[in-house]
Structure prediction request, 612 residues.
Amino acid sequence: MKRRQTFQISFTILFILFPTHSRIAIPQESAPHSTIGEIVIFEDAMSKFVAPNAQIELLAAGFEWSEGPLWMKDANGGYLLFSDIPRNSIMKWKEGEGISLFMKPSGYTGITDYGREPGSNGLTLDRQGRMIFCEHGDRRISRLEEGSGKKTLADSFMGKRFNSPNDAVVKSNGDIYFTDPPYGLPKRADDPTRELDFCGVYRLSPGGGITLLTKEMTRPNGIAFSPDEKILYVAQSDSQAPIIRAFPVQSDGTLGHGSILFDFTKFRGRFPGGPDGLKLDQQGNLFATGPGGVYVITPEGKTLGRIHTGKPTSNCAWGDDGSVLYMTVNDTLCRIKTETKGTIPPANAIHKGLILDLDADHDIKLTNGRVASWENRADGMAKTFIATRDASHKKGTGYPVLKEKVEAIGGHNTVVFKRQELINFDEDAFDHLITGSDYTWFAVMSVYSQVSGLKDVNSFFGNLKNGGKYEGFWAGLNDDNTLWIGSRNGITFGRWDRNNPQLLGPQLQENRYYVIAGRMGAGTGEVTIELFVNDTTPVASIPFPVNPKANPSKMAIGQERDATNHPGHESFDGELARLLLWERPLNEGEFGKVLSWLKETYNLKKLETESR
Prediction:
């Protein structure tokens, strides 16, 4: 049954004015926040997404044109960043602190006037949590490097400069999809410096390759993926054709023929604004800006209602626990509590020094239904881990198995090892980790009953050298699933002694998922090795004398070394969903961020701290 209801919300206007100079001083916000607007219901189902009496809170005002909201998680909950495009600035809003200047300039670094909208527009995060900018004035996609400045990722296509990158979304494989209308050029479509005669939708690969996906849209703007990444939605902010188009995503990441999901024409002129930015909830429903506010649209294109701000509304972003929708509304910043949840980009990832990222959701190649190779998604020297023996089902040989959509870890995949291993054949990629650089690693995993080969050596990874004194580092389980990790410096031969210490952890329960971590301090003297289980407090620690001349070997997953002479003899039985490795010891803040990020990503936030 269709109906149209409006729920009026009284409001007062909160004026927060900027001085004209670049130092922005803004009064402390007051609580409770003022409210604006109303909730307009077209279908009864709207109440499943936004309560009829939900309030649109006005958080701050006095901007020129707010855009590109992005929620940034931190140890204290998080804060919102957003662009004020005309002022060439990015602003920060935090509960209890209000507004402050985060970055200026944000999108134009020139010395002459650059029209009405020179600053950054859309903001997002890549897979490693690094900030990505769509820059109008500098006409580029850029990335903020950790501890440094911005790096240009792309500024041209086929030798011609982009118009003014507008909005971007990052696919789970690291590809950046972005739109390029002319709104940031001083004279827009008629600007004499314009080099491309179309408005494209592009893909930027992690390797730097640019692909033009489509140029059929006259003014592509907001962009977002469906939760399964099989559909790419692009809003078109053309007053003559105000639509949202849905493109099927092909297996190679290019786009099929798009279809119109929704047409805003009937609302055009009745309310201020038009289609611009959009986000999706976890069920695939769109929260898309349009005339008068934010429209809630099903994946089938049915409009359920409108979060009516009554003003041109440029964009929106999920924040807090994922249920709060932040909206950039003309010259203001607003938010509303919803009855659904969206996905927030992974701001907790730490990129600096990450040399290994094996993710069971991506970059796995199968042969006869079994895992033949697993690609490293980080920037390290080691690229591919491969199975080296036949794909028979005999235990101790063959390829691991991909276990898909495991409900216990939020629908993510795992790789199942049963005395099998995957080997990277780079002899030197990991040598430095025990000779002074040192390491931090995390594994999301579960264990099965172990089958004893060499007693109490059931390793899930390691790079021990075959023969000699077996220098390297490794992690595994006793036959009863007691967890252990260790390093070997090659000074003496022995399984467990001062030069080859073992850290014992708790006995792990079968078929339960854990976040396990190991960390070794940096330096060439005596350092500390620590073992962690589901928590930032180590369950064990031990000193380790570093030997700068140690020479480990290849890295194996599911085994402690390239054990070609006795396959499966020292391998573990269990599952790995993720294995991350840094070539440095993460500090306490970084370690906590990664742990929290993994727990949230893999639905393990309720894990209890294990005791020794």
